[in-house]
Amino acid sequence: MLPFLLRERDRENISMEFSTILGGWVAAFLTIGIFSYLYKDNPFYKIAEHLYVGISAGYLLSLGFWNQLQPNLFGRLFPSKNYDPDTLTYSIYNIFSFFFSSIFPSGGIDKGHDQQLMYLIPLALGIMMLLSLVPSLSWMARWGIAYVVGMAAGLRAYGYLNSNVIGQVKGTAVNIFDFSLPVFSLSSPSIFNNLIIITGTITGLLYFYFSKEHKGTLGVATKIGINFLMISFGASFGFAVMGRISLLVGRFSDLITFSGSEYNYATFWVLFGVIGFLGYAAFQDKGNSDNFSTNNQDSTFEEE
């Protein structure tokens, strides 16, 4: 019995090691396939792009369904605490449970919610949005789309005003005459920081004042405002680039890891394979173009 268990354990370790190696090869292929676009559009890039888009869409759909739709919509329509098989609602639920037991478990959905039948409205709107796939009923999708767009616009507008506009107004409303503050400090409020905030805010707003030509004192103020805006945009762009560079460093770090002997030199084999295929394809394209130009010249001479 013991040798059999040891053989099973060794088989599991071998299987796990093979899956890890296979994952490294796939990751190296997809990474190099995306980088191959730097040469030109090619089949390797298309494969990696389609896999990325498809897997991302499927993952987000599954995540949204099991984290949002199933517990928050179905969990409020068919909660387990109100389960009664004699009612019409749970009779319909039992039919769904017979065919889709993983989504509708027996006895109701236990997510801690009370039954709220008003959630039939978002369910109906969601079904209307899916009817856009049916040409004869696609007009019904406008109701669901209009509700989602309108609600999202209202919530976003409130959140944007509350967090950005009002927050920035409060942040710029500083007391420049508070002499209890230090004159200069990099990480805490100071008189110098308050002057920079006031100057940058006023001159930045004056730059967008177009009712008067930017000359004289107004022109000087707007030039100062442009400098503040450029510094702000540059810092934002630099922060974005820094984030992308960190992702690039992470991919190169993984490629270096996959180039080791424990992954059977996956990075090198994939890189040589991609370069070899692209080089052969480029050579074939050049030969075909030369033959095409030669044929065109021969046909031209025959016509003459």
Q: Could you give the order of the helices and strands?
A: HHHHHHHH
Number of strands: 0
Determine the mean pLDDT.
86
Q: Any idea what the shape is?
A: extended
Low-confidence stretches: 1-6
In whole angstroms, how far apart are the ends? 90 Å
Count of runs of 4 or more consecutive helical residues: 8
Q: How much beta, percentage-wise?
A: under 5%
Structural class: mainly alpha
Percent helix, as a range, is: over 70%
- As an assembly, this protein is single chain
Rounded Rg: 32 Å
How is the biggest beta sheet arranged? none
Q: What's the structural blueprint in terms of helices and strands?
A:
Layout: H1 2-35, H2 43-77, H3 88-99, H4 120-130, H5 141-172, H6 191-207, H7 216-258, H8 266-303
Helix pairs in contact: 1-2, 1-7, 1-8, 4-5, 6-7
Task: Describe the 3D structure.
- This protein is 73% helix and 0% strand.
- α1 packs across α2 (43-77) and α1 packs parallel to α8 (266-303).
- The longest helix is centred in the last third of the chain and has 43 residues, at 216-258.
- With 304 residues, the chain is mostly helical.
- The chain is extended.
- Residues 1-6 have low confidence and may be disordered.
- It is built from eight helices and no strands.
- It has helices spanning 2-35, 43-77, 88-99, 120-130, 141-172, 191-207, 216-258, 266-303.
Task: Give keywords.
disordered N terminus; extended; 8 helices; mainly alpha
Question: Summed up, what is this model?
Answer:
The chain has 304 residues and is an all-alpha fold.
